[in-house]
Amino acid sequence: MSVRPELILDARAALGEGPRWHGAERRLYWVDIARCELHRFDPATGADEKRVFDHPVGCFAFGRAGGLLLGMKDGCATLTSWDADPQPFGEQVLANKPDYRFNDGRTDPWGRFWVGSVDTTKQTGEAALYRLDPDGRVTWIEGEMLTCNGAAFSADGSRFTHANTPSHALRIYDVVDRKLTNRRTFHQWPIGEGRPDGGSFDEAGCYWSALFDGGRVARLSPEGDVAEEVRLPVSRPTMIVFGDDDRRTAYVTSARVAGEPHSGGIFSFRVDVPGVPEWPFG
């Protein structure tokens, strides 16, 4: 039986991205990067609140003590509450790079935030993956990318994925002594069939990837083979995450495309295997 995703929020976001399920609040947080917006959506009521900032929010993590950690234009910032003002946290490593911003990030089981940048001109290829520790220390991990995307850790923290999206290749690493090692290509998509954007692991060790310009999300086996695909009614899905009390509802954000009525909306469908919960920062 085929899966039919449901439109649950006709958000019409310019660049809907970065959904994260907050278990205690039972809300889906997400961002519209192009409009500098942070949202929190209640699937039970359909209510969607938003905040607008002076600069884009590319990604975020929930804080262990509450609030949020935001990946913004120049670097990371903390938000102590929904209504608070963002406060810079850690070195603002992109402050002198006007064509760069933070794009996608994920917290690991030890409370560290792994965040990638994007070259918005898609020319110089100096985007990179960084790690932000709870004490504010920022460490450059690797570079030579255009769009660092798809960051996720497996349930036991032993594997990490991310992609340089324009390469159509998803990378995977072993995590040994809390460090990345043994980088290799996990899956290479053919040119023209969609590029790996945001993704998440499930508890079976499979990785779900949203394929931008591919109109679908794909579930990769632990060996990197395509085990399942779910088609969406929009061409530019951007990120998939899992929520609800059983973490078996997939939520998929998307980007707005002219001529696609529900593009920029958020879609959902049920899955058999729960997704990995979000670890808090700190």
Describe the 3D structure.
The chain has a four-stranded antiparallel β-sheet with strand order 1-24-23-22, with no helix packed on it. A four-stranded antiparallel β-sheet has the order 2-3-4-5, with no helix packed on it. A four-stranded antiparallel β-sheet has the order 6-7-8-9, with no helix packed on it. The chain is globular, with a radius of gyration of 17 Å. The chain contains no helices and 24 strands. It is mostly beta strands and 282 residues long.
Secondary structure layout plus pairing:
Blueprint: E1 6-9, E2 16-22, E3 27-32, E4 37-42, E5 47-52, E6 59-62, E7 68-71, E8 76-79, E9 87-89, E10 100-107, E11 113-119, E12 127-132, E13 138-145, E14 148-153, E15 159-164, E16 169-176, E17 179-188, E18 195-201, E19 207-212, E20 216-220, E21 226-231, E22 237-243, E23 249-254, E24 266-270
Question: What is the gist of this entry?
Answer:
This protein is an all-beta fold and 282 residues long. It is built from no helices and 24 strands. The N and C termini lie far apart (42 Å).
Rounded Rg: 17 Å
Q: Which regions are unreliable across 5 or more consecutive residues at pLDDT < 50? A: none
Indicate the structural class.
mainly beta
Query: Level of helix content?
Result: under 10%
Order of helices and strands: EEEEEEEEEEEEEEEEEEEEEEEE
The backbone outline, from C-alpha atoms, is globular
